[in-house]
Target: Carboxylic ester hydrolase
Amino acid sequence: MEIPVIQLPAGAVRGATDGVIDRFVGIPYAAPPVGERRFAAPQPVEPWSGERDATLPGSNAPQRVRAFPGLDVYPLVGTGWVEGDDYLTLNVLRLTGSAGPLPVMVFIHGGGFVVGSKDAAVQDGASFARDGIVYVAINYRMGIDGFLPIPDVPTNLGLRDQIAALTWVRDNIAAFGGDPSNVTVFGESAGGMSTANLIASPLAKGLFRRAIVESGHGGMTRDIPVARRLVDKLAGLLGVSADKAGFASVPPSQATLDAVEKISQPTARIDLRDEEGREPVFGISRFVPVHGDDVLPVKPLDALKAGAGAEIDLLIGTNAEEMNLYLVPTGVRAKVGRILAWLALRKSIPRAWAILKAYGMGGDAKPGMVLNAAMNDLVFRWPARRFAEEHQGKTHLYEFDWRSPMFGGELGAAHGMELPFVFDCLPVATGPEGLCGTNPPQDLATRIHGLWVQFAKTGALPWPEFDRDTRQVYRLEAGEASHEPVMPAAAFLP
Model:
């Protein structure tokens, strides 16, 4: 079996093949972010001589992955930090012997901008390569190094890394048989947020033709002055000055991960609400992109209103019960009462009690169920619809509605549930603690995966486009589109 070798401008890469799929993993798209480069915009790849071994995944961004009660989340986010300097890398998979140019799909992993890896099992990508796609998955800087607006440091370094990776794809993917004029960027959760932000960014213009935003939107960005409160708080925890020199004096380590973990606790004393009293991330992550720089000059929704991304075909959607992932395994949904539900919500948004009443508080529903339903819409579902409304290009909207049987059927169509179906890799999320339980429907995975592949190839989808009047949303399990009424959350969000 012939070993695949590709000659790139920086040097040759040697991959591996099983005779069906060629794999090239751990290819650098930027120089290692260490030393003076740690808090700098991504720098060009350092050339190498000979053939670089592209058969080992390599390192990833500093992170700490914690176990989830009763649920195996490692296939979704990876097993944690693989230490090493050279982690601004990507994987490329292609069908052995296929003739290009082929459509390209670039996946941006999720994980709250603090965990995740291109090498997590669920996003292996072989299914896309099998179906005639050149598949790319990327790592990027996260947490302190990627999404903390430290004074004298370029903002949004994690997004800048993603843009550098897409620039690498534009310049190099033809060598793997990919078509640089037919690139689809897609991502889930923080990766979906990233994809939405890239649509709105002038620095990413022209780097991709289509985008798929899964359980994400453009509403989770902060004003830089607000995000600087996080800088000050973390500097205090680490005992350093709140500037580049201070943070550079503390290398990525278990100590910095301790600080990230401490500041991420719901009990952490930090106010990240904006001038309107909203915390757009609802406490799910402290680390998110900022607007007001050259990457995101304005809020993404405002950018869309001005025509940003109008040339991009967009598929965007959410899961029907996103917040179940956070509130069911932890037992919060079952235990929370009215007062705690109100206190939890008012930390992030004005008129918390009015919101809860709009979702049924005071009626027969349990307070935890009301909080869950409200946050489903506030955090994920309604902001995704708003992004779809403001996007001036071709837009389709989906809802993933298959319900997992885990936790006695209470997990349902939770956050992340669509990923094993999109990647047609149900076995990695199946089992006693698997996200999808013990017997998820393969026919649904085949159909959903096929929709993603078709969209990447041609932009075609078998349901009407979304607009703010007809509001056509395609339910993936049901296999049909219908009008979706405006949600109660609309009265409380921009």
